[in-house]
């Protein structure tokens, strides 16, 4: 029950994360191509220049990030090109505009509210290398999965002594350009950089969702151990039940119950235990999963998605597991000697 409760909760959290990520990419991403690194390191600004030089490429906008400390809290400080970012990302501003990043910070609305910030308030950032920067808050925008937290211009990050490296490069197509041809040309232009990859929108979306699936696979593998233990628990419970009801089993056999009927009775008992436990576990899992999604809304999981098909599949598998768990106890019960069973205490 506990194992399935955790599996159910993680299934809902995973489905909600994927739905939120997909919606964020589809609703915010205007770029046709995204250039990223396969490592945790950034790459040279020359990459953006090489992409810009490819025929058919329109706007190119580099994105940066740097770890920093604000009010003793570690934050990822984002960097953008204010002149081009609006053409590759659909930012929804509540206060100010993207131009505010030129000489200050723009902050996502949830961080702005949760940190009790104010427009015009100066923010001190201590970077990991010891450099500092002090800039005012000039605007707020709706948080999404692609841009959040404290964001300033790439130029301000360089002035603060941060590495002159991009984390990603977003690029658009010119009108009439062939996306397949342009992507192939970008790949050729970056062929000497094996750690840099180019993806179109669909590939980028699939890669982000794939990362969530990988994390869920690891979690499911760990929870699978708990489920295996629960299966052994069912087997042990049924085995003890057979021992404790030896006299009852003998009486049932004496009044005409066949071995086949006895096996069927034990199997049904096991299935009922498994299904009942699965229903309770999945019910708790749904409650936990929905609660987790509500708690993590500020972390970007905006949409609630409940994978009913997957949960029903778990229930069916639980019933089958119940049947398998009953094989040995049912066989043992059916092979009891009737006279010995009746005479047992």
TrEMBL record:
The keyword Transmembrane applies. Residues 1-188 form the MacB-like periplasmic core domain. One of its GO terms (molecular function) is transmembrane transporter activity. The chain crosses the membrane at residues 215-243, 268-288, 308-328. InterPro entries: ABC3_permease_C, MacB_PCD, Macrolide_Exporter_MacB. It is a multi-pass membrane protein. Belongs to the ABC-4 integral membrane protein family. This is Unannotated protein. It comes from freshwater metagenome.
């Amino acid at each position: 029950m506990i194992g399935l409760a955790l599996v159910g909760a993680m299934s809902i959290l995973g489905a909600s994360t994927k739905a939120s990520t997909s919606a964020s990419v589809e609703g915010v991403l205007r770029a046709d191509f995204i250039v990223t690194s396969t490592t945790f390191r950034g790459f040279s600004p020359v990459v953006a220049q090489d992409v810009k030089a490819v025929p058919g490429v329109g706007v190119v906008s580099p994105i940066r990030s740097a770890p920093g400390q604000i009010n003793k809290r570690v934050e990822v400080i984002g960097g953008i090109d204010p002149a081009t970012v609006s053409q590759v990302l659909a930012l929804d501003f509540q206060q100010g505009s993207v131009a505010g990043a030129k000489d200050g910070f723009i902050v996502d609305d949830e961080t702005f509210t949760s940190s009790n910030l104010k427009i015009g308030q100066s923010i001190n950032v201590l970077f990991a290398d010891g450099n500092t920067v002090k800039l005012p808050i000039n605007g707020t925008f709706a948080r999404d999965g692609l841009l959040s937290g404290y964001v300033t211009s790439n130029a301000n990050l360089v002035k603060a002594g941060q590495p002159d490296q991009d984390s990603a490069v977003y690029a658009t197509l010119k009108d009439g350009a062939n996306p397949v041809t342009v992507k192939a040309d970008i790949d050729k232009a970056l062929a000497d950089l094996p750690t840099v990859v180019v993806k179109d929108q669909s590939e980028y979306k699939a890669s982000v969702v794939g990362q969530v699936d990988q994390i869920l696979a690891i979690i499911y593998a760990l929870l699978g151990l708990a489920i295996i233990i629960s299966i052994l628990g069912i087997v042990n419970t049924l085995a003890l039940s057979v021992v404790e009801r030896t006299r009852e089993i003998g009486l049932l056999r004496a009044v005409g119950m066949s071995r086949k009927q006895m096996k069927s009775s034990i199997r049904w008992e096991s299935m009922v235990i498994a299904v009942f436990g699965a229903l309770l576990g999945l019910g708790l899992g749904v409650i936990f999963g929905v609660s987790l999604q509500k708690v993590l809304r500020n972390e970007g999981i905006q949409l609630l998605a409940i994978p009913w098909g997957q949960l029903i599949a778990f229930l069916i598998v639980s019933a089958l597991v119940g049947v398998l768990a009953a094989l040995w106890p049912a066989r043992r019960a059916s092979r009891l000697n009737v006279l010995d069973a009746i005479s047992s205490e």
